[in-house]
């Protein structure tokens, strides 16, 4: 009866948690726990010991305190859509799931603020305020299912980040529960608050510094007018030049997305937009927003620049149905890959805009070398690449090979002065590559900060930072030996 | 010979520092040290033991290491223009002055980045890149004399922060020297880097986490067209409403400044702009930038909104000389106060935009209560107030009274949901008010972060955080007793 012995160890913990959350607030049955074994990176799995479903900041604080007192690791989880395994459980851990924390706590149109609980879905924020003429700008592809709490943890981006920035630019204040269970308010409702910018530090810390339980977001005025311009090109280079020239002209589009020939055809095969020419080597989708007169003017300028850079055709749309039609293929791109290939692996890296064309051609060469096809659909304006590596997991050892190829792509991004993550985070998936981007002193400084918040290392252990256990490289072993730091 | 005994204690330190910096790199003569007794807050003074003038990151690192090994507090100082006493020396400290660190290290127009040393003057960044059609957006009033390193320490703002954000939105990466002398690179050249956002944490940390020695800044395309709209009103309320209505309309002006009747008359007395009507209770200066067509359209909209809110006259200017004429009074406002009053004290607080009119009337009532005239010249769009309290320091006890009045204004800002600093920082001047804005747990969390970087507390001690020594309040005494923290 090994199982019951293990469970018995948890009985006093379950009792304490149920005293706070009620019986319905604690999930303990093996089959119900299965759902929580992984997030949007299904290649890694681990069952948690327990799942908790708090409703309030105070309940979250009580859970964290119970874990702290009993030395139990805990992991915050929103909607579980993260792509880097940031919410992947560790052995014998408690999950704090925010699915029952979905209240809008306050809306202040005058000062353009909304206060929400972390479990609220990204898209609901815009739905809540759109009647009054406002919206919430960060729009990850998963926006109809991902949670704001998860967006805060990963500093999520999206198509509109080119003009409006990532989540960090839209979070003004947070109530957080620290790994020791303390409730701390950071930031506020005005844009600048004194002391350290802990809000900026917390956003993107991937659950390793605590959990946000109340989030004050900036809401923006819905633009008067929106226009989408679609341009198709004979080469990636031409499209890349058009991106650089548009930015150089002083126009900052709301979004600027590129798709390569392979993605175009995959999308046309599956959703048949009939907007993207199958023989184009690249298409560019440029969204412009602002006042009517401004958008009209920008639209003309963008069209001129694209033609000057070699575009074959320019289409544009201002009315919502046609705009959605032009966007349809881009929005369906990941799903299309899922249909034309048994499996795909999305990478997320950033390169300086000036390096776009050369990096894409190197990625293509790497794909050939490893024997995999790579589709490119990405936020061109920010240089945020999303190469999709197509493969078949049923083939022995294929995922390991794909991971290696993904790693080569990240190293390439770092080599040209870019970054190993644009918007998906490091999580479990990319921690091995942190040492390619940061020196020992850099990582040590981050670990000091982590320890300041998370001295026992109980909040989301084994994430972000390289550890010998997972990287298996001697070079990394050293990096985990931080003086005075209880690294996990 | 007490003096020589004290100096003798410094002889081995001087020797070590001169070995790194040469004789000219270390200032030790009493009369030369006088210059460094205070920054832009002259009411507090303290002579440093030594001043060092490094030229490179490595030299800064060597100085920090010498201080660390000998337990000597050190303070980074840029141009010394800070208004909150952030660069105020403490007893027996070493200053690290960046006056010889004024190199532009790299300019990358393609990716819109510039890398500079910290001693470079804010305005020089724009001068360096303006020929190629770029500029650096944050523009504190002191921009022709303040240093970029100081801007990073204080997260400086300026007129254009309404549209473009404060310094933190324009710093992409930093090389820092930690209080232990380590050289650490944080952030990078692309907008998003993984791991903790230490760049965001460092900007605005007022020299307490280390010193930035290389700074990567974003540069922006010079706008096609700029227009300034001047509107005058019969009441502050009307002008306040116009500010709210302009923002509500979806227009984000580059800047939106307000001056009250008292400031208008002070300015007209001194610089005679002849643009600001002396009988107006408030004027609004709205700067619009962007494409020609956009600016023209915005200008009309802003004019219409102001008239609808009760403006008496609207003037506007697109050509540079007329624009400068409209701005002249605003730019000269602080200097004008210096001429009409023996002394003045600038406060810096933030209120939610919706509270502007009511807070201004409360400030005026507080002024009457204390018997001082208060001029209001401020960044209305951000709700960032700069009340100028006019007084005569020669009158016994006047500065203490003015400080108390300034404190009341800050408490009022906090009461309405605002902040005790918009852009000048906390420094030495405002640390007593931190407890009005933050709870014990909030401040404790910041102290933990400070300790992570600055375990001995040697980098800029006695700044930001309240200490019983300066606040003298029993309530604050408790807050300094942080467990495991070596607070100063």
Automatic annotation (TrEMBL), chains A, B:
This is Glycolate oxidase, subunit GlcD. The lineage of its organism: Bacteria, Bacillati, Cyanobacteriota, Cyanophyceae, Oscillatoriophycideae. Gene3D superfamilies: 3.30.465.10, 3.30.70.2740, Vanillyl-alcohol Oxidase, Chain A, domain 4 (1.10.45.10). One of its GO terms (cellular component) is glycolate oxidase complex. Signal peptide: none annotated. One of its GO terms (molecular function) is (S)-2-hydroxy-acid oxidase activity. It is an enzyme of class 1 (oxidoreductase). Residues 44-222 form the FAD-binding PCMH-type domain. Its EC number is 1.1.2.4. InterPro entries: FAD-bd_oxidored_4_C, FAD-bd_PCMH, FAD-bd_PCMH-like_sf, FAD-bd_PCMH_sub2, FAD-linked_Oxase-like_C, FAD-linked_OxidoTrans_Type4, GlcD, Oxid_FAD_bind_N. Its cofactor is FAD. Keywords: FAD, Flavoprotein, Oxidoreductase.
């Amino acid at each position: 009866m090994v199982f019951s012995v293990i469970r018995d160890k948890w009985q006093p913990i379950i009792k304490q948690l149920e005293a706070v959350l009620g019986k319905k607030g604690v999930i303990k049955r093996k089959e119900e726990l299965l759902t929580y074994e992984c997030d949007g990176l299904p290649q890694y799995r681990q069952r948690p010991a327990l799942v908790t479903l708090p409703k309030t900041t105070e309940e979250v604080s009580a859970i964290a305190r119970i874990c702290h007192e009993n030395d139990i690791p805990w992991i915050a989880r929103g909607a579980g859509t993260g792509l880097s395994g940031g919410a992947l459980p560790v052995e014998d851990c408690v999950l704090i799931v925010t699915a029952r924390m979905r209240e809008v706590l306050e809306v202040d149109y005058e000062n353009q603020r909304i206060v929400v609980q972390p479990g609220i879905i990204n898209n609901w924020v815009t739905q809540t305020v759109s009647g009054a003429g406002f919206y919430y700008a960060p729009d990850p592809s998963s926006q109809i299912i991902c949670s704001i709490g998860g967006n805060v943890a990963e500093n999520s981006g999206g198509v509109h980040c080119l003009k409006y920035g990532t989540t960090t630019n839209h979070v003004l204040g947070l109530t957080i529960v620290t790994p020791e269970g303390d409730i701390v308010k950071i930031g506020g409702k005005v844009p600048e608050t004194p002391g350290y910018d802990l809000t900026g530090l917390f956003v993107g810390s991937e659950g390793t510094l605590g959990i946000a339980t109340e989030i004050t977001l900036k809401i923006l005025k819905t633009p008067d007018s929106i226009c989408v311009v679609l341009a198709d090109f004979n080469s990636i280079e031409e499209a890349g030049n058009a991106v650089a020239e548009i930015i150089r002209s002083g126009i900052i589009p709301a979004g600027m997305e590129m798709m390569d020939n392979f993605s175009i055809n995959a999308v046309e095969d599956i959703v048949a937009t009939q907007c993207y020419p199958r023989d184009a080597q690249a298409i560019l989708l440029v969204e412009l927003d602002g006042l009517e007169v401004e958008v009209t003017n920008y639209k003309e300028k963008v069209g001129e620049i694209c033609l000057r850079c070699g575009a074959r055709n320019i289409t544009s749309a201002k009315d919502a149905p046609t705009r959605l039609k032009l966007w349809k293929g881009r929005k369906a791109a990941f799903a299309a890959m899922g249909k034309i290939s048994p499996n795909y692996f999305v990478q997320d890296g950033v390169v300086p805009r000036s390096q776009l064309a050369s990096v894409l051609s190197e990625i293509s060469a790497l794909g050939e070398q490893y024997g995999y096809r790579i589709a490119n659909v990405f936020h061109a304006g920010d240089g945020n690449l999303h190469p999709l590596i197509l493969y078949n997991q049923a083939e022995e050892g294929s995922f390991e090979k794909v991971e290696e190829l993904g790693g080569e792509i990240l190293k390439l991004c770092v080599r040209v002065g870019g970054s190993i993550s644009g918007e998906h985070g490091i999580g479990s998936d990319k921690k091995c590559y942190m040492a390619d981007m940061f020196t020992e002193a850099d990582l040590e400084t981050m670990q000091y900060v982590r320890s300041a918040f998370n001295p026992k290392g109980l909040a989301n252990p084994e994430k972000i930072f390289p550890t010998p256990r997972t990287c298996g490289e001697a070079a990394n072993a050293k990096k985990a030996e931080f003086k005075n730091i209880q690294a996990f």
